[in-house]
């Protein structure tokens, strides 16, 4: 069964850089080889079910603008089935290899946990049937533990143990559905795992609860044979004043404390990096340095707004720097580029959904090609190696490896007169601009 929601019937294809068709790829040539792999295998694009098919087009000061037909009329489960038809048609038209979902995006919440999980099972079966003949696979699934009013004080960190228990039941059903659909990862996004005021917050207790929650999830993952990693998505604030999964460094410290670094990695997002006062490149570099890189949500924020605008990634230079780091480490394993992005609430035509994805996929492809060229030329890796070359010498290696005591190093320093060297920042920024 297909749908007539979009005006297009044929999948979007690569047309080359000269094309002006907004529904044609200019840079994304999925079969083009990039450092030994097809471009599609490097980028691993994923459509986010929630923003593309569930978000009605509201913002903090205004309501629905999209008027999607599956959001009006009929019972909720029938609407969910109609939404699935449109979703899989869009996956086909974009020719993407993956999609991702929250439980309540795909199936309606019921009057009880049992009813909600039953609804999820119905839609999971529909997905499984569609995926038998479709190209698309599941990048990751997750549970929405933040929208319902029961989670207003958090889920795993809630002061009420019954809410904690309900969250466990919801997450178990979500990872079961993800496992049934052969999902590559499972994401934990703690939208309200934080506080609004310290006056009513026991931080140690809440962190211990969150650590226990994730530890149980890891145990269950192994019990059912789910082979992918659990991913945490750092976010510093909004809606709470402070969230426990603030940024890469904070999450790493949390995972170390609770012994979770082996099974839990990070799903990073540009918009969240900016809210934390970092760049997207910073978060990716640090995740690799700490050994917890997993996957990416590929969207962006508005630098003039202090909240999560979830716009499509359109900055090729920013993506080139991210891909430069990723390619140095071999790229994705189980992760991918998930479009956790919303079209603007004034973009009300159905085809705007396709156009936004195509433009952003091209932006990512352009960044990937620039990163490939920079690496091949040693444009950034060469100057970086030169800057730290002293640590490759005999004394540098001895000091770094523990082969010299503090006293020995101090004695050697008495005969030294080191002079500062230029960091060459403007030179390097100019080099990057030559490639993008």
From TrEMBL:
Co-factor requirement: Mg(2+)
Positions bound to Mg(2+) 2: 269, 272, 308, 310
Gene Ontology molecular functions: magnesium ion binding; xylose isomerase activity
Swiss-Prot/TrEMBL catalytic activity: alpha-D-xylose = alpha-D-xylulofuranose
Cofactor note: Binds 2 magnesium ions per subunit.
Enzyme Commission number(s) from the entry: 5.3.1.5
Enzyme class: isomerase
Domain of life from the UniProt record: Bacteria
GO biological process: D-xylose metabolic process
Protein name: Xylose isomerase
Gene name linked to the record: xylA
């Amino acid at each position: 069964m297909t749908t007539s929601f979009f005006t297009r019937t044929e999948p979007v294809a690569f047309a080359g850089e000269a094309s002006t068709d907004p529904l044609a790829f200019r840079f994304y040539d999925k079969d083009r080889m990039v450092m030994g792999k097809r471009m599609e295998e490097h980028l691993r694009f994923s459509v986010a079910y929630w923003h593309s098919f569930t978000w009605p087009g509201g913002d903090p000061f205004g309501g629905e603008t999209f008027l999607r037909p599956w959001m009006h009329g009929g019972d909720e489960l029938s609407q969910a089935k109609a939404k699935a038809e449109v979703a899989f048609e869009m996956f086909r038209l974009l020719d993407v290899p993956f999609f991702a979902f929250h439980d309540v995006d795909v199936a309606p919440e019921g009057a009880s946990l049992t009813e909600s999980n039953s609804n999820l099972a119905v839609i999971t079966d529909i997905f499984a049937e569609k995926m038998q003949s479709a190209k698309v696979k599941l990048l990751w699934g997750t549970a929405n533990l933040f929208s319902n009013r029961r989670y207003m004080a958090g889920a795993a960190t809630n002061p009420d143990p019954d809410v904690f228990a309900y969250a466990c039941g919801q997450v178990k059903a979500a990872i079961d559905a993800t496992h049934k659909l052969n999902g590559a990862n499972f994401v934990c996004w703690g939208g309200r795992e934080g506080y609004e005021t310290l006056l009513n917050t026991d931080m140690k207790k809440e962190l211990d609860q969150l650590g226990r929650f994730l530890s149980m999830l890891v145990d269950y993952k192994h019990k059912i044979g789910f082979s992918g990693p659990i991913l945490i998505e750092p976010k510093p604030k909004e809606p709470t004043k402070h969230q426990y999964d603030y940024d890469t460094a904070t999450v790493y410290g949390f995972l170390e404390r609770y012994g979770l670094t082996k099974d839990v990695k990070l799903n990073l997002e540009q918009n969240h990096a900016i809210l934390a006062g970092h760049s997207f490149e910073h978060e990716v570099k640090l995740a690799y340095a700490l050994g917890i890189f997993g996957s990416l949500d590929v969207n962006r924020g508005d630098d003039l707004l202090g909240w999560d605008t979830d716009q499509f990634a359109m900055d090729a230079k920013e993506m080139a720097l991210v891909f430069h780091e990723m390619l140095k480490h071999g790229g994705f394993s189980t992760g991918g580029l998930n479009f956790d992005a919303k079209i603007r609430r004034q973009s009300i035509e159905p085809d705007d959904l396709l156009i936004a994805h195509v433009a952003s996929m091209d932006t990512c492809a352009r960044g990937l090609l620039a990163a490939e060229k920079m690496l091949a030329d040693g444009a950034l890796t060469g100057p970086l190696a030169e800057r730290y070359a002293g640590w490759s010498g005999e004394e540098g290696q001895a000091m770094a490896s523990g082969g010299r005591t503090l006293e020995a190093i101090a004695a050697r320093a008495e005969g030294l007169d080191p002079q500062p060297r230029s960091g060459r920042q403007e030179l390097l920024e100019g080099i990057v601009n030559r490639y993008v």
